[in-house]
Amino acid sequence: MRHLLSTQDLSRDDAILILDTAGQMAATQEREVRKLPTLRGKTVVNLFFEDSTRTRISFEAAAKRLSADVINFSAKGSSVSKGESLKDTALTLQAMGADAVVVRHWASGAAYQLAHGGWLHGSVLNAGDGTHQHPTQALLDAFTMRRHLVGSPEGAGLDGLTVAIVGDVLHSRVARSNVQLLHTLGAKVVLVAPPTLVPVGIARWPCDVVHTLDEAIEGYDIDALMMLRVQRERMTGGGSAFFPSPEEYTRLFGLDGDRLGRLPEHAIVMHPGPMNRGLEISAEAADSPRSVIVEQVGNGVAVRMAALYLLLAGEEGAQ
Amino acid sequence: MSRPIVILNASLYGDTTASIVVEDGVITQVGETVDAPEGAWEIDASGLVALPGLVDLHTHLREPGREDAETIETGSRAAAVGGWTAVHAMANTNPVSDTAGVVEQVYSRGQEIGLVDVFPVGAVTVGLKGEHLSEMGAMANSRARVRLFSDDGVCVYDPVIMRRALEYVKTFDGAVVQHAQDLRLTEGSQMHEGEVSAELGLAGWPAVAEESIVARDALLAEHVGSRVHVQHLSTRGSVEIVRWAKDRGIAVTAEATPHHLLLTHESARTYDPLFKVNPPLRTEDDVEALRAAVADGTIDIIATDHAPHASEDKDCEWAAASFGMLGLETAVGVVQKVLVDSGLMTWRDVARVMSENPARIGKVDHLHGRPLAVGEPANITLVDPKAAWTVSADALSSRARNTPYGGIELPGRAVVTLLRGAPTHIDASLNPPTEGVPA
Amino acid sequence: MTGTLLGAPDIGRALTRIAHEILERNDGADSVVLLGIPTRGLPLAERIAHRIAEVEPDFDADARCGALDITMYRDDLHKQPTRAIGTTRVPSAGIDDQVVVLVDDVLHTGRTIRAALDAVKDLGRPKAVQLAVLVDRGHRELPIRADFVGKNLPTSRSERVDVHLEEIDGDDAVILSAGRSDA
């Protein structure tokens, strides 16, 4: 692996190697001394064109626990005001000698362009690009599912599991990343969303689509239920709103105690955060023992350590 | 006055072999054998196809306003190299071509450069804002003799404004040239809405956003008895609507661009903004429908939508990049590749869709798109259909570099362009004479 | 001299001797834990632990034997293709204030043991660290020596020493070949 841009680029073996490595990384994080010397002398740049404190500190912790030097680089700009160009930023990072660039960007494809623009030599880790991909989120989700739902996790995929992903699929890089990765790992995926929030052209995705949460709970033996965050701007667009009201969304798609009770007993509840309590998930569901939402955050560090290790530790150009 | 020119043994329209003599800007002889005037420059045209000079109904020259991307001069040179003798310059300049003053300036500058006739297209509404009709009459009656009006780049979205514009242009036998795009359905849109956009996470641009406007405008044109020309058709649905409208006798004409005849939305997978264009590249099925429609006459013309952009507007994130791609210098090669070499059309048909029909729609058919016959103005393009070449952005004459065809091999190209008997482009392979010919 | 230098009986005897030496050196096995370095150090550590348990019935071989993966402590990561990370398993007795005996198959440059010492340091603070190896082939690049050696094998740098173990390779043997690089 030279870059980690999309879960679509990962073979089953690649994905399992990352998860297994993350397992070893997680084990080191239970020790008294959690810092490893592995990436001493390497420089990791966190390049954030979009604010995301959670993702940034997760990558920062991962890099630091592996002894890499971390430089945080916040670049302002949006599709409206372009700000510093991606190319100029990349050239700057190249001059600074970045071995890896962790990039979060508002534009779909920015990570791909950074990796393939010929502007820098380092590895590129996509930490979320527009509404396209967020591969480490999908990997940490898969890691969390494997820990809870697979007997002996090491070396295993997610074969035979059924995962429902509920919410704004259209604008979700988390959903796109998860559908691909879960499919690669052998799980069955059910997307649950109002038709307005399902992309046109979804027919070829390796998943089922249903339009109410009750239909999913009744029709499938769900092992993991992943609730996506509903962005406020999706419902306040006046004539452009994607659903009539927050209340109606909660009625049809919200996870509450009643729906939680109708899931199989072993099923886990996930959310990439930050949650809108009372909208897509009730407090009762979020705080139930079946919720692994807090654990997802911890696993994020282990998965990102694994990704950094696999991209950066090996011989240059040997991959 | 330029030297007389003898074009020896060209294939006229790709059909019959004949020689052509050009003197004082006019064709003076056409035949198997001709008498060469004294001092004539002789072009050995065996194997070359002679066509009436090509006429582009859809060109962005960017002057005034964005001379860093293209000027009337660099755009004229690109046009001449591409085989064009006339281009219609779109109104979305800065200032907008919405007054007689601006269109006269553009027209005069084109004449002054003299490489190609530049016919300005006037804006339908003031500042392309879609609110008030521009003074179309003044532009029509100016020296620029404007006959086509378009807010290209933006759709004339308000149905009442569109109706008024269609009615008003009848005064001077003009036509409204519509950029068919429902603005509400395409807010923030980045690429064709379909399985590729779904995967790439780029906001979708539904086919219906084009088709609904094409249908509306055809019905409006019928209702008020006027002429509408639809730009850059990109979907099978649009083709079917235009076909239906023509069957019904509505005065609708339509164009397709070379890029919509060759490229598909799959190109977006590279996230390279060179492939970002308005309307977006569509599916393989749409491409097939467009090719068939050009061949059967449903689509009347091929127009380039040559849209130069400064590199900083393309060397950036997809969503931040400008829409548009270069087209003047590659159009002949692309058309040969997708329509002629594929057997869908002959060179005779190419003369129709790239010269005669556009001249007629643009109301410049007294000057361009004329027969290759004695007494006609010598606007002639010689195409070498065997001169395959690999497109390189840096080798283009345009000031901009945003061609989507870099590295692609095209089967042929224009090797000589004559504007009223004066060579405006001579390919280096023809050993151009040093005297009497512009550099 | 190439070919099989040690067979299964030789290896068995060497490990038994090492087990006894460990007991002697540490006045019994009360505070001894063994950490095998994957891949082949691990079964060797287990075998030695079971031999100690045969002599000292109070010694719980499973509780006092662990695994120490040193991949993330290597100093040559950037010179090799990316390595998969192995498991580190701290013995349930822990390592603080214990005598940790590192176990590996071949001692060569000493770099693996250097990495292992760093790794041990991050796991806790042992009373002492000792080193047991099945084969010492020389060519040290660091000031490191083994406390317990199954067999000293003088080799040339260009030769290759391969250790086969029943648990991993299906047979027990130490093989010397005229390979081209380090074992």
What's the SSE blueprint?
The complex is a heterotrimer of chains A (319), B (439) and C (183).
Chain A: H1 12-28, E1 43-48, H2 53-65, E2 69-74, H3 86-96, E3 100-105, H4 110-116, E4 123-129, H5 135-149, E5 162-166, H6 173-184, E6 188-192, E7 208-210, H7 213-219, E8 224-227, H8 246-253, H9 257-261, E9 268-270, H10 283-286, H11 293-312
Parallel strand pairs in A: 1-2, 1-3, 3-4, 5-6, 5-8, 6-7, 8-9
Helix pairs in contact in A: 1-5, 1-11, 2-11, 5-6, 5-11
Chain B: E1 5-12, E2 16-23, E3 26-31, E4 41-44, E5 49-52, E6 54-59, H1 72-82, E7 84-89, H2 100-113, E8 117-120, H3 136-140, E9 148-149, H4 159-168, E10 175-178, E11 191-192, H5 195-200, E12 204-205, H6 208-224, E13 228-230, H7 236-247, E14 252-256, H8 258-262, H9 284-296, E15 301-302, H10 331-340, H11 347-361, E16 380-384, E17 389-390, E18 409-410, E19 413-419, E20 422-426
Parallel strand pairs in B: 1-4, 1-5, 6-7, 7-8, 9-10, 10-13, 11-12, 13-14, 14-15
Antiparallel strand pairs in B: 1-2, 2-3, 5-16, 16-19, 17-18, 19-20
Helix pairs in contact in B: 4-6, 6-7
Chain C: E1 3-6, H1 8-25, E2 32-36, H2 41-55, E3 65-67, E4 99-107, H3 111-123, E5 128-136, E6 148-152, E7 160-164, H4 166-169, E8 173-177
Parallel strand pairs in C: 2-3, 2-4, 4-5, 5-6
Antiparallel strand pairs in C: 1-8, 7-8
